Request: fold
Amino acid sequence: MKDGDPMADFEQPPLSPVRQPPQGGPSTVPQAPRGFARGLSGAAVLAALTLACAAAPLMADGSTIRRLDADPVAAALLDGRGSLSFALLAAVLGGLAGIVWALLAFLLGALRGDPARRRSIAAAERLAGLPLALLVPAAGGLFGGLWPLALVTAATAAPAVAVLAHAEISALTRAEFLNAARAAALPEPAVMRRHLVPNALRPLLAAATLALPRVLAAESFASLLGLGLPPTLGSWGASVGLAARLGDPLGLAPPALLLALALWSACAVADAAVAGSRKP
Amino acid sequence: MQRSLIRRLIDAVPTAFLPMAAAVALAAAIAPQPGASLTLLRGLAVTLLLTLPSLAVGTTLGTLAGSWAAVAPRSAGGLFGRLLAGAGPLVPGFLLAAVAALAVRAGASPAPLGWTALAIPAACQAARLARPAMARALGPGSEGGAVRMARGLGLDERTILRHHALPQAVVPVMTGLRSAVMAAMVGAVALESLLDLPGAGSLMIDGARAGSAAGVIPPLVALAGLTALLVALGAAVRDWIDPANRSAMPYGGA
Amino acid sequence: MNLITARAAPLETDALTLMVEDHVLLDRATLQVERGEVLAVTGGAGAGKTALLGVLADQPLPGVDAAGRARVDGRRLLIAQGGQLAPRRPLALQVAEVVGHHLGIDLRSALRRMADGLDRMGVPAAARRFDLPPEQISQSLRWACLFAMAAAVGPAVLLADSPCAGLDPTVRLRLLHRLADWARAEGVALLLAGRPEDRVDGPADRVLRLRHGRLVPDSAVPPERSAPASPPVGHEMPGSALLRARTVGMAYPLSPGPKGEPRELTVLHGVDLDLRAGETVALLGETGSAKATLARALLCLPPPTAGSVAWMGRDMVPAAVPAASAAEADQAGLRRTRRDLQPLFPDPAASFDPSMTIAAQFAVALESLRPDIPASQRALRIAEALAAAGLPDGTAERWPAGLTAAEAARAGLARALLSGPRALVADEPAATLSAEERSGFLDTLRVVRDHHRLSLVVATEQFAEGLRDADRGIVLLAGHVVESAAAGILLTAPLHPYSRAMLAASRGERPALEGDAPSGLAQPAGCPLRRRCPLARDFCAQAMPPLEEVSPGHRVACHYWDAPEGGAADGA
Reply:
């Protein structure tokens, strides 16, 4: 055995400035959360689509905009205004409803005990397991009108948001830094204000972004069947459905592609937001 | 398989069979036209026939391709898996249904097109979930521990992939099966309505077009029950492929 | 040491160098393991143990380049870090796969060999559940099965990476000794790699330390600093207990029973504890001993469900119950108590708010605890605390996510020092640290304690390390105090079999306890240790032994502490 290595006591400077986790190989380098680049490109695509749709009237030549006469791309961009603005409206409503649902569950838990909280979230879970998107065309046929449709569309997205928001907050309420704040004699309201709320905002927003792809898909689905947005507003789904019925591939391609792109980017943004709000 | 299938189906009675039965009874009671309950039953069968095969084939194919994309990203199968995983939400079922309707108008045969249109989203979803899970199972992180241990114990790569890595890729797919079923349901409704198939979905859409609640509600309830039934079937399949359930091993005397 | 054998050693390396990109992970390592020899390689996190074993097992980690020579003769097996098997695949199938692959035998013969292996690992026949998947068997049984699987294959060289990491010390050392016995009996070259505080060196014939990229023989004098270098004698003033806990108990509600009756799980049973000024008390125990629960109860985070905790004569429990709308006076009292009594958390990185810089959250704590310090003085105070904890100035402006584990532990210490406390309650304060970082942090904690004349309560599972600088030790088992004595007595002549086993394990010796600790939900009647204890007799099942004083200041809860059969646990 070569125990007497003369260099044994030679002290090297600490080896790697790169932090190495206790387990795993040495090839780990700190990196951005998974899907971050995808989320960023999704956001960029979504922003570009919104801008293009907003600028669509400028591209149309005449003073009056008549969708059926315009060339398919311009018509699709015009349709995008209806789809995207409705999706934004319904997503905000649905996201808010979901967050309020989760917060109400916690309030209920504080007032009536933990089983009440669990029951109300179990209800959201069961609802999220039903094909709620089917309600949108049904509501479109039965009620018509913009606002009922927006409310129903928002309601289809709310349970999933509520379930995720609840999971995020309940993980946060068990965080050790809240105990550290209590050890500093901060009263409970101050612990909430200074530590819980600032850390809850990001996961809650992330949970709310889940609503965007869902409402966009639900509205397009309903419009595709002719039971969605009123025809005056225009929608990608309605154009796709019309082109499919008429057997017009040229009319189908632009709105279908734009819709697919919008759905992909909305999903990418939601995925990245949810993954990014989790602690690595 | 059989025992777990029966158990899952019994578990699904309140969420799946009860709504379907209630919907049929409701249709008989309130629907305007006679024979509505029989039409609804037939419609349910059509919808089941449309969704079940496409879900099964799509999920299986997507899981395998997605897993393979993590093993050999540059091979043909790997490229296919990456394509599926990347497409993901790009191709919702209802959009493919519109494309299929267009093709049928151009003279294609509806049945294979319909199944394909519903299978592709399921495959995309499965590949999207399976690929990162497989990559984690083979990677340097803590989830790769089982594969590293199997390598350290000297097993060959084929066994490791099949018994140690693939099960870890299947787990998230099976967990995400519920959303795949719901997406397939939405796609099936669009497909039936656009292709004029006599399914429960087109019944519901016809009712909605007519503005009659009596025409909408029974098929809607029935479709919710059908979703629960498909989810229960998925759970039975999960029980079946889960190796922990196949442990009846003769090891007496050891 | 220069054994000249007829046959070459089965495992040999010559100037083996491992590089990750341009970092040298391991510099010219030369080692040799003979048949039947047990070699331990110890090193902290990221020291390169896993990379070394990967190269020896011919499965180099991605990104690691090797130069030099490494030779392994015969069949080699690597037990990878973490001890995971395919989680859902029944054990029998995995055993048949591995053993069958190497030996070409069928399932039944493979399982028979496996059963022999389990015998050697001391797993009782009743615990053998080959039909279960690994996720449903306990962690210690899983490790025993892994070792047994390796024994069933019968390799020439067995490499084990962090074996039994995460198990309780008594269980870990028992299994490691069993593995070493097997290797010696079968002539297997066994290489154990692990963190120094896991005492993988205990059963080894030879120990090499992996430090700064070099493999150096462990110095002739083992790092056994167990002989307490005159533990600082607390200024024992009778009656001047700062913290006085009486019959502290903790119970958690369970879901109601079949008849709707409320149920609860009691994890801490009426513990008394006094902490005098300047005194250090070590709470010693393993998983399920409720040492952490007791530490939290002393801080009233959350307050205990039974008993009282008084700081300088003032009961904290009523004020700390969150739901009660306690009077303002109580809150002020609690604030003063919290100023004097500060915690150290087991996971320091998680105890910092990720959305605030270190300075910002220190300022919040300071504002709350020390309103008497003007805002202009806070930055100075924070800088002083950070310096006392051995952190550079710039740390204050950093975000918690950017701190290393060692920096986070020191930052946690700095936060505890902010308010000028008189006592610290630390729950496994160095659990996230290893090797030099660990000893460095514990040294800082000791220096800070002596400098500020702090009282200290340390909960830890490292028996010798926890007692080295303590005045008194309290050994906990399943929520009961089983022994309490001065540190010197516990380190030299503990009386309770559990204390003896913990002491043996912390020295790397073979603890005289069999089996695993029972789960908290299924505690046996009577003494919780009786199914593992070498002294157990029938009477032990009838009653939990009371804590009785056997000599001044030394209490033991064991019916047969004076029974002659000490077993190997004495470890003299």
